[in-house]
Each structure stands twice: as C-alpha cells, then as structure tokens.
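Morning. Coffee machine broken again, so started the prediction first thing and wrote up yesterday's gels while waiting. Chain of 95 residues, entered below exactly as on the submission form.
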Amino acid sequence: MTTTAGGAKLEAQTPLGAMSEEQLKAFLEAAKADAELQEQLPALQCVDGIAYKADAVVAIAKAAGFVISAEELGEEEIEELERLGISADTDVRAW
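Came back before lunch.
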C-alpha cells in the first residue's frame, strides 16, 4: 500500500511481528539445510532454561544474518533447533 505525505510517497511497512515471523521461518529452513549453521546449534545443549536458549538462538540467527526476536520463538522451535544441533554434533564427532 502506498500513501502520500507532503507529496512524498510512503510505502506501508510490514509489521515487525510479521517480518520477524518470516525471518524465523527462513532461519529454521536455513538451519535444516546449512551444515555450518548446524555446527553452531550444539551450544544450545549447554544452556539451561528456555529464555536463555531463546537468547542463544537469537544470537546464532543474528550472526547468520537473520533478524528474529526471543519473543517469536516458541519451545517447539527451540527443541527443533536443539535436535538439529544434536544431529550436527553427532555427525561431527563421528568423523
């Protein structure tokens, strides 16, 4: 949607929550496909408490170029990422 204000065009922006949700989905897909990203996920096993794990996921996502918030992360997503990290950790140790 485009509106005008003082003769300038302004594009309607995606609400932050929707953008963050899109970024979260993109990050989850990237984590499933990117071995380098999966190598960072075993660190989640070292963190106690869901809030601290959410903060760790946000930091990993940010380093990979994604913008998500801890509030957007549910326990289900964190557990999925932990499983990916366990798999990555197991694969690395197998070598």
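Residues 1-16, 91-95 have pLDDT under 50 and may be disordered. Going to sketch it on the whiteboard this afternoon.
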